[in-house]
Inverse folding.
């Protein structure tokens, strides 16, 4: 691995080999989704606990302080909205833009099993071809559009392995039962996606803890943090699971204590 790419990868993972990325790229297909109407205000109290920020170039330029030391993972695919066919994506951002923005990595969605499977796999391949000479890691995002039933170990393991074979440096995918099958078949780090908002924060702690125990390298989760009534408490409790091996009960206790103190301070 070239020095530049290795340096970027070292920035994206702490010394323990783990990471907690905060995605706020949802607006590229959802528009001003709840609690993300003003991204800069939403992320300000959360950034101290993030190992990376996953966002688009528009939000990066308009809402993120250039003085930040948090690594940027740039969302570089898009082309359709929640009103249309989410699988019909292309690469939206040039290599010149990636370099100008000094990003640590880029992210692209791939929709296996969809009408646009080949197109989105080739988006990944072309992106790796463009980024590799400049030492920019590519994060492949396992995307299922509205077909949530695809999120089982067999499908997710297939996707993760294909993305790694194409050249992805990191794979973002959903948690599932028997998650170790996904991790064991993928030769690059696997980070857990947040998925739809859950009913309780404990459900989040449970699947994140299970995924970490089964070999995940970290977490890339947004909605279940910034749509929570106490986002800083949620962020810090999840960080405790990822970086300090907290149990689900310990994380929940930490969350409740921080939430109460946060709400009392308002």
């Amino acid at each position: 691995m070239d020095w530049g790419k290795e340096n970027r990868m070292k920035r994206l993972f702490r010394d323990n080999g783990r990471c907690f990325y905060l995605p706020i790229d949802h607006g590229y297909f959802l528009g001003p989704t709840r609690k993300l109407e003003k991204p800069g205000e939403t992320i300000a109290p959360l950034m101290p606990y993030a190992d990376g920020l996953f966002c688009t170039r528009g939000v990066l330029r308009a809402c993120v302080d250039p003085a930040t030391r948090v690594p940027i993972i740039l969302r570089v695919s898009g082309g359709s909205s929640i009103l249309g066919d989410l699988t019909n994506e292309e690469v939206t951002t040039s290599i010149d833009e990636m370099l100008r923005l000094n990003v640590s990595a880029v992210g692209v969605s791939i929709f296996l099993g969809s009408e646009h499977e080949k197109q989105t796999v080739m988006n990944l391949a072309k992106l790796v071809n463009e980024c590799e000479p400049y030492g920019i890691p590519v994060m492949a995002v396992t995307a299922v559009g509205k077909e949530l039933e695809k999120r089982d170990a067999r499908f997710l393991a297939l996707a993760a392995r294909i993305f790694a074979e194409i050249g992805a440096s990191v794979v973002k995918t959903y948690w599932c039962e028997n998650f170790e099958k996904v991790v064991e078949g993928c030769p690059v780090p696997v980070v857990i996606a947040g998925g739809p908002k859950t009913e309780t924060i404990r459900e989040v702690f449970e699947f994140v803890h299970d995924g970490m125990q089964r070999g995940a390298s970290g977490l890339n989760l947004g909605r279940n943090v910034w749509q929570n009534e106490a986002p800083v408490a949620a962020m810090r409790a999840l960080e405790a699971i990822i970086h300090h091996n907290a149990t689900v009960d310990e994380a929940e206790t930490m969350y409740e204590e921080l939430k109460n103190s946060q709400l009392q301070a308002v």
